[in-house]
Every structure is written in structure tokens, then in C-alpha cells.
Amino acid sequence: MLKDKKIGFIGVGNMGSAFLSGLISMGIPKENIFAADKHKGDIIREEYDVSVFNNFEVANRSEIIIIAVKPADIFDCLSDIKEAVDDKKLIISIAAGIKTQDIAGFLRQDAKIARTMPNIAALVRESITAIYCNDYITKEEEEIVIAIMSLIGRTVILETEDLMDAITGLSGSGPAYAFEIIEAMADAGVKMGLKRKDAIKLSAQVLKGAAELVLKLKTHPAELKDLVTSPGGSTIYGLNVMERAGLRGILMDTIEAATKRSKELGQSKNQY
User: Fold this and answer.
1) pLDDT at residue 269 greater than cutoff 60
2) What's the gap between Cα 53 and its chain centre?
3) What are the Pyrroline-5-carboxylate reductase dimerisation domain coordinates in residue numbering (predicted)?
4) 91 pLDDT band (50/70/90 cuts)?
5) What residues form the annotated binding site for NADPH?
6) Is 94 exposed, middle or buried (0-12, 13-18, 19+ CB in 10 A)?
7) Out of 3.30.450.20, 3.90.1640.10, 3.40.50.720, 2.60.120.10, which CATH number does the structure's domain 7-162 have?
8) Which residues define the annotated binding site for NADP(+)?
9) Which residue numbers belong to the known binding site?
């Protein structure tokens, strides 16, 4: 699906590098990969052995253009590539908070644009990436977007772009909540006498293992929770404390607050 496609990257930071290395590892010919990054051109050329050009030239040579610049830089980037984009090129944006209609406004109204929201776990290819494709993208092209995003983890397809703010609040910001929980669990372990490095390892693996059970068994978390909750046992006593403290409500309020903030930022481009 991808091996005969010419793919260009504009911006090769941490996220762009994750995609670039993923494409190379799956056997995409390096001569079909182009990159542009005003700060890291020589490093990219040396590390990945791919052709490095300016933004316009990358867009001009590519069938698929992956825009992985910071949101604050995207409109300068779009201005650079505007004349190279026709109605056949597939644009994939990773810029948080930038709507497809805003990108189309800079390029062309019939541009094929996919907006995506990965998270930091892309660095270890464990992201969950939400994808929204505008009306000009065909089913076959949507499959191409999914294939590219699958290089860094799992994917979900959104039917409406309005849900991107909720995605930002839940899975975009979600790793930070998980880090907070891991740190708190590790602190508790240290308080109970464990070494710090062991407590962190235990806490992180607990969350990873629990997540894998939910994903692979496709079982509701409540059912899995019941499997490890014995009558009168230590687990139910711990869960009782969490319920009394209102942990569920705290997490729901956290995600709601992040979602609202994402909407606020989306209403003003100069905030990015």
C-alpha cells in the first residue's frame, strides 16, 4: 500500500522521527522519502539517509505530505507549500488544534486533509491516534492514513472533527495523567518501604499490564476489576478508599477541563 508512494515529512522532531523510522523499518524505499526541517536537515540526512529539501520541494515531490511542525509554525509551513499542493496530494496533519478547514483555507478548498491526534507514546510506538478525514479523502486514502498512523500504535477513526477536543482531553493529554498516577503509586510504595526504582517499575508495569488486559481481552474494566477483588480482601479495602476520595469524579473532571481548554485554544489561532 505504501511502498510505491512518495512520502514527504515537513518537520522531523520527536513525532516526525517516529513516523520516519517506522516507514524505513517497514521497507519503504529511502528514495521515496523526503524530509524538510529547518533546524535538523544535516542530522536527518546523516541518521536516516533520506533526501532533505525545503518545504516547497518536499511537497512538490511527494504524493503524501505529513506535516509534523508545531502548531505555531503550521501556517508559515502551509504558505511555503501552497503552490505545490493540488487536489491529488494527501495531507496528513499532526498539528494539535488546527482544523482541516483552516488548513484548506491556506491551501485549497478541495485539498485532501487528514487531521490526526497522536500522543507522546508514539516515541515507543504505543500511541493511540485519533484520525479525522475530510470529505475529499477516499476510502482507499483513509486506509493509507490508518496504515501510516499504525506505525506508531493503535488508531481510532472519528466521524466528526468536533470530537478532536475530547480526544485531546482524554488520549492526547492522557499520558500525563498516567505519569501522575504512576508517580503517586510509586510514592506510596516508597512510603511502604520499597526502593524508589523498584516502586516506579512496579507501578508502571501494573498500568501497562492492566491496559493490555483490557485491549487484548476486549473485556469491560469493571469485569476485570472483579476478577482481582476478593470478598474481604486487601484490594476491596483499597478500592473503598479510592471511591470515598472520589477518584472517578476527579478523573472525569480532569478530562473535561482539558477538553474545555482545547476548545478555548482552538478558537484563537494565536494561542498556539
Assistant:
1) no
2) 25
3) 161-265
4) very high
5) 55
6) buried
7) 3.40.50.720
8) 10-15, 68-71
9) 10-15, 55, 68-71
